[in-house]
Amino acid sequence: MDQTVAVWLVLAFGVLAANLPYLSERLLLVGPRRAPKSAGWRLLELVLMAVLSFAVGALLESRIGQRHAQGWEFYAAAACLFITLGFPGFVWRYLRRGRG
User: Fold this and answer.
1) Measured between alpha carbons, how far is 58 from 64 in angstroms, rounded to an integer?
2) What is the mean pLDDT of each run of 10 residues along the chain (100 residues)?
3) Which residues are listed as membrane-spanning (predicted)?
4) How many CB atoms lie within 10 A of CB 42?
5) Nearest in space to 54 (alpha carbons), one of 10, 2, 89
6) Which of 70, 88, 67, 68 is nearest to 14 (CA)?
7) Rounded distance, CA 57 to CA 86, Å?
8) How far apart are the first and last CA of the chain?
9) Helix/strand/coil for 33
10) pTM of the entire structure?
């Protein structure tokens, strides 16, 4: 796999993963349906999706070549980027106006 394709794949997966907690009313995307899912569940799902996205990125990086060790700065910046990627789902869930 080419490095450019891997980068775009991780970014696309990150956008999808960051918005999924806001688009589904199911617990952890597969559990029982809750009418109004609380913000705590959405935050937990967001953290789990971020960890999954970081794992996919590390896997793709190790398949391309040698995986580089990262410090806390990398993970802090990546978490901020992940939260920013989830902004469209947040707006759709909490800030859009109701019909009627």
Assistant:
1) 10
2) 90 95 86 82 93 94 88 95 95 77
3) 41-60, 72-95
4) 19
5) 10
6) 88
7) 17
8) 49
9) strand
10) 0.86
